[in-house]
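Re: your question about Metalloregulator ArsR/SmtB family transcription factor

S., sorry for the slow reply, the queue was backed up all week. Below is exactly what I fed in.
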Amino acid sequence: MAKQVPRKLTPLETLEDAAECLKTVAHPYRLRIIQMLLAGDYMVSELAEACDIQPHMASEHLRLMQRAGLLASRRDGRKIFYSVAEPHLEDIIRCIEARYS
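Result:
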């Protein structure tokens, strides 16, 4: 008996966008940064310390995710705080934590 295809498949263009998003977050430091930002806003130095990396490296990860529309930033004087801009990141992190924790 042939397998039944789901009634409505997601358009390939949408799946390509999803794959790009997943490629962007598919890095241990970026996943840790997202975990932290889901709990609140953080500065680069705090995120770098939690990942045990140099601040310039954390900044690169943040820039990449911000360019992809996943993160937002706000300035408070000389400090820049980052936050999650894409609410669905919480679902992705929850899925990862359920599978790998």
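The chain has a mean pLDDT of 95. The chain is about 60% helix and 15% strand.

Happy to talk it through on Thursday.
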